[in-house]
Amino acid sequence: MDHRSDNPLVVYEPEQRIRMGFMTCWKLMFKSLVGSRTLIWLLFKRNITASYKQSALGVAWVILAPVIGIVSWVFMNYAGIVHPGIVKVPYPVFLLFGTAIWGLFMGFYSAAATSFTSDGTLMLQAKFPHEVLVAQQMAQMIVSMIATVFVLFVVLLIFGTFPSWRSMLFPLMVVPLFFLGTGIGMVVAVFAAVVKDVNRVVTALLGLLMFITPVIYSADLENEILQAVIWWNPLTYLINGVREIALVGRLDHPTGYILATLLSIVVFLLSWRLFFLSEQKVAERA
Amino acid sequence: MADDIVVRVEGLGKKFCRTLRRSMYYGAIDVMRSMVGVSSHPEVLRRDEFWAVDHVTFALRRGETLGLIGANGSGKSTLLRLLAGIYQPDAGRIEIKGRVSALIALGSGFHPMMTGRENIYLGAAIMGMSRRETDRKFNDIVDFADIGHFLDSPIKTYSSGMHLRLGFAIAIFSEPDILLVDEALAVGDASFQKKCLEKALRLIREGTAMILVSHATPTVERLCNNGLMLKQGRQIYWGSVEQCVQRYFHEIGQDNLTRGATPQTFGVGDVRFSNVHVYQEGRHLNDANVEFGAPIIIEFEYKFLKPTRHNNQVRVGIRTFEGREVQKIIFQERPCSQRDRYPNEHIIPLKEEGRVRVRIGSPRLFPQTFRVDLAISPLDMDLHLGGLANAALFNVVHPRHERTYLEYGNLTITEFDYDVAIS
Fold first, then answer.
1. For residue A116, which of A207, A273, A283, B376 sits 20 to 30 Å off, Cα-Cα?
2. Which of B31, B81, B100 has its CB closest to that of A281?
3. Rounded Cα–Cα distance for residues B45 and B38 (Å)
4. Is the pTM of this model over 0.90?
């Protein structure tokens, strides 16, 4: 029992974190995240094994889910329901990538937003940094993202439109979407732990957001108002950026993409901070 | 912190909200406020809020054990969660020196589909143990939990006992400086309980401090040096465990006496009972608190409203406050021919009216509240001439300076001798 003598003093007081110094808080945030990597890994492993052990199709679901998701959109295209505007690649491919990338963004968001709902009771049983729950959710989401990317590349090969080696940058280009989706999701997670329907409302709102983002149609439209909205929407650049790299191999609006990336990093850091400041009030409401 | 104090709690408070709707509203407001760095003034109660833990102050040294005692809803579990760092305090301060292991729920984070081995690592990580530390203690945990060749099977296949043993083993082998235990977790078969107790005692000898939540059972008195009593979140007493448990039973007893139960007459109404008193011999007849083991006097007056020619039997029934029958004190006017049915031991003729005094010489009633029922019935008829349910209440309380009752465990021995006198 040699560890007894030099134990640091731990103090619990009301609203400790909001009275903390700015940099102290950041240090603590990183320390707490890095310090709990074992727990993140073990929880991630637990949830991954659990979810695939109990399903009949097992790991096949990772591949099947994105495939099924896109079938409906392709069908709508052939039925002539949507008018995509001018697209440079075969529309099914354009559509497939658009919806898949949007799906990744929504996936990041909802993985983060449901962090507390999936493992809420654990918070009442043990003390551990709650960002662990977010981190392990994100890790799971990244696994399904890898599967999606794999499916998309297979589709590209089938359509014979594999443009250049730069398409391989696709996964890297998704990072800003990860930051933005996770950022929004983290803040929603805290609120959703208190008021359950916050997540549903935000999910619905993000669903609407898809229609002012060039996901299923191109950014070059005749409607001026819609055009302007799309122009100012950072998601336009993030989604298009990923799709352009994958399908064409270069960016149409590099500045827009970079600005949107910076914005998403700011949103992520800010959200993480807001999360850290407020999540201590969550356990008692779970 | 001074010398070897490992837990210091000062003016600790935690509030909760009574209504779900307001709780949601306050929660959302508080989250928003803390996000923008504005205080929610947790020290102020808003509408429908109450202090679940209110101004609790105590300290605990290495190797000391503290029992948290109180009725359901008195704030014991909330206090335990505050100490574990699960809840954030709304007032006051907690200082903790050393590793805390909280046995609030056993097997936190376990997944039924994963093997025992995988779950040990997961459970240990949740308890705050590093992988290397878990590696080091792995064999001890497996041995203690006694799961044998089930180690690599999914814990879904475990019996509930194995499941709990594994959870307990992980918690106890994290070598905590402070062990927080919810007594509701006293689980498993007798031999495992003994093993747990021995392990806990060894840790305490080695310097671990323990806080045990309990409804004040003899276990607490055996295990703890100190007691802290909570009532509706407030700290009523902090001090020696004997005093604390006495205080607790006293509170419950007094509550029972004041809540009382209204006497109810039954039977045909030919007899009336009055002036019922239960008290300790030598004490005032209006003091319904009787020390454990002391002689008990039950006194009452009866009056036959109609003359009777039957051979009557008088019954004084003692029930627990909850209604479980403990003992019947019976005597009759004349010996009865049906010897197999009636003991014919206490033969006492009754007058038209009079006073009955029953003396129980050495009762073995374990400290709690009891009710007394009275009835007079003819031996040859299946009815009551008169009866009074809940005629009186009395408390058996702990003797001031003794722990003799501990020898009896939590058992009320219901066979005892009594004398009856009529005046």
1. A207
2. B31
3. 17
4. no
What is the model's pLDDT at position B409? 46
Q: What is the residue whose two structure tokens read 């890297």?
A: A172
* Per-residue pLDDT reduced to its tens digit, A54-79: 666 666 766 676 677 667 666 766 66
**Interface size between A and B, measured as CB pairs under 8 A:** 149
- Which residues are B61's β-sheet partners? B5
Question: In the numeric block, which tokens belong to residue B213?
Answer: 């939540």
SS3 at position B144:
helix
Of A4, A13, A281, Cβ closest to residue B98 = A4
CA distances from B12 to A9, A205, B15 (A): 17, 42, 10
Q: Which token pair is A139?
A: 């890790």
Identify the segments of chain B with pLDDT beneath 50: 1, 405-412
Q: Which chain A residues have a beta carbon less than 8 Å from that of B122?
A: 42-43, 46
Contact B299, B356 (CB under 8 A): yes
Which of 163-192 (A) contact B at CB < 8 A? 187, 190-191
Q: How confident is the model at residue A7 (pLDDT cuts 50, 70, 90)?
A: confident
| A35 vs B contacts (CB less than 8 Å) | none
Residue A11: which of B32, B95, B177 has the nearest Cβ? B95
Cα torsion B76, B82, B85, B89 to 10°: value is 170
